[in-house]
Amino acid sequence: MNRSFIPKAVEADSLTVNYDKTSVLWDVSFHIPKGVIVGLLGPNGAGKSTLLKAALKLIKPLSGQIVTAGSVAYVPQRETVDWDFPITAEEAVLMGRYGKLGLFGRLKRADKEAALAALEQVGLSGCAHRQISQFSGGQRQRLFIARALVQNADLLLLDEPFAGVDLATEKAIMAILRKQKELGKTILIVHHGLQSVKEYFDWALLLKTRLYGCGPVDEIFTRDMIVKAFGKDQSLFAEAADLSAKSISGHL
Ligand SMILES: Nc1ncnc2c1ncn2[C@@H]1O[C@H](COP(=O)(O)OP(=O)(O)O)[C@@H](O)[C@H]1O
Ligand SMILES: [Mg+2]
What we know:
Layout: E1 8-19, E2 22-33, E3 37-41, H1 48-55, E4 63-68, E5 72-75, H2 89-94, H3 109-121, H4 137-149, E6 155-158, H5 167-182, E7 186-190, H6 197-200, E8 203-208, E9 210-216, H7 217-220, H8 223-230, H9 235-251
Parallel strand pairs: 3-7, 3-8, 5-6, 6-7
Antiparallel strand pairs: 1-2, 1-4, 8-9
Helix pairs in contact: 3-4, 8-9
The structure holds adenosine-5'-diphosphate (ADP) and magnesium ion.
């Protein structure tokens, strides 16, 4: 099948984003096909969060553009949220439905049912009436995932969903996201755990202000590419690529 006929979920075209006079994204062009799980990888300050915000139209590019097909749900980096805000888990998830209501819309029974179903999916149905301030780190992350799921969006953008989350929760979240993929959704995840890249993602996007690669993970997440993108000092990246290559060949 000719690749160009696969529908695109995200397309960036010479995207440049500045904060003041400094470019944090420079001439970034790529596309992501529909229905894949993509790992967005790069060191701190690489512009990963900025790329998501540009895709959400929260930030205006200096030049170029990034376009998304269909509806988008967003899981922001957890520390950017006020967790003392006095609402219950159910209310927090229902906030994900407001976008669907329109001008005079009101939350209906169906919205409430969808919220409870989303909480159930992330294993929090027992906590629906608890205040979010009482939630642990892992529970907060799962709550965010529920709020994204309830939107039933075509594209999910998740910014470091596994930061400060235990491995069991991380695996549980990945299982939920794989189910979303089976439903035809496209999922873009900012991720730091390099040893799990080949296990988790179909595609990888390597970013450090510039784009270093975007494509099927086996083509992009190689030792050569990683050293090229991040320099020889990034031996951690190289080791991770070797490790995951080993664990993959071990399974064959
Ligand atoms: N609102 C802002 N104003 C000025 N500089 C910013 C702002 N947000 C991020 N930056 C800077 O832009 C660069 C990229 O940030 P970010 O997209 O958050 O990177 P990442 O998510 O890859 O760690 C960093 O150097 C950061 O300090
Ligand atoms: Mg970030």
